[in-house]
């Protein structure tokens, strides 16, 4: 919707029959500049393709359709780590489409805010600076401001890991533990995110930017976030609609596996992984975090 302010846009979906009003984006009617199709061959005629799939769906999508995407500029918006491969979306894309230019678009941004035209600032990460500059200008609008970064690993890990911490923040609020406890989760969660990301090749400055701290702040403090609401439901011992996309749940499991492999201590992520699969109670998870050996900050 935002990009249609810059020119014609083609939107591909497996089922285009729902027309111009999508129940996932209530109150937003697609502008006329958007052509909706279920024909992937025609949608991939464009040179720049944005992939807005959940992280756990991307691998399967690429297995079916990589040939149509190779050689293009591919911009991933997924915020997660693939559970089977333990890699981010950019690695899945570059392995499936070796001739493509890969970029990641991420940062604090609820889809509903962007579609309503509210001002938003994002990180566009691309290892190829020239292609990154082209994309930055192509995808920015007067209300959508893209900052360019060369650190694709840091940008995508910030977006993926903040979802895990947002679940933890939701648990704290849902369980009635208060805003001070949430601030502790955000801060110690940020330390955890940064440690793992640097270990995996990220630059620390990227984690402190929009794609890391920026998105962490948004997602841990807003009930618009699905990850936060999922955590809130766990904390309040309430059910949660399984049809809602909660990237942080699978990503917490991927992070637990990655941290074991890398010998990196990720205590909050480990608790989120266990809470998401109901293998620990909220009380035990809190007790576990609070009674760890005392440390220096
Ligand atoms: N919703 C938001 O505010 C934001 C979402 N993101 C990220 O974007 C990604 C997608 O999120 P949403 O659009 O919110 O999720 P969603 O679950 O609301 O929508 C995803 C869409 O992808 C479709 N889909 C799933 N598997 C598919 C496949 N194999 N082939 C074709 N289509 C498939 C689903 O049918 C659904 O329509 C996630 O990684 C999320 O973290 C990033 C920023 C903001
Ligand atoms: O990534 C998002 C905001 O930047 C969307 O967060 P949720 O997936 O938790 O709704």
UniProtKB/TrEMBL annotation:
Transmembrane segments: none annotated. Pfam families: NAD_Gly3P_dh_C, NAD_Gly3P_dh_N. Pathway: Membrane lipid metabolism; glycerophospholipid metabolism. Substrate binds at residues 79, 226-227. The keyword Acyltransferase does not apply. Residues 151-287 form the Glycerol-3-phosphate dehydrogenase NAD-dependent C-terminal domain. Its EC number is 1.1.1.94. The keyword NADP applies. GO terms for molecular function: glycerol-3-phosphate dehydrogenase (NAD+) activity; glycerol-3-phosphate dehydrogenase (NADP+) activity; NAD binding. One of its GO terms (cellular component) is cytosol. It catalyses: sn-glycerol 3-phosphate + NADP(+) = dihydroxyacetone phosphate + NADPH + H(+); sn-glycerol 3-phosphate + NAD(+) = dihydroxyacetone phosphate + NADH + H(+). Its main location: cytoplasm. Belongs to the NAD-dependent glycerol-3-phosphate dehydrogenase family. HAMAP family: NAD_Glyc3P_dehydrog. This is Glycerol-3-phosphate dehydrogenase [NAD(P)+]. The lineage of its organism: Bacteria, Pseudomonadati, Pseudomonadota, Alphaproteobacteria, Rhodobacterales.
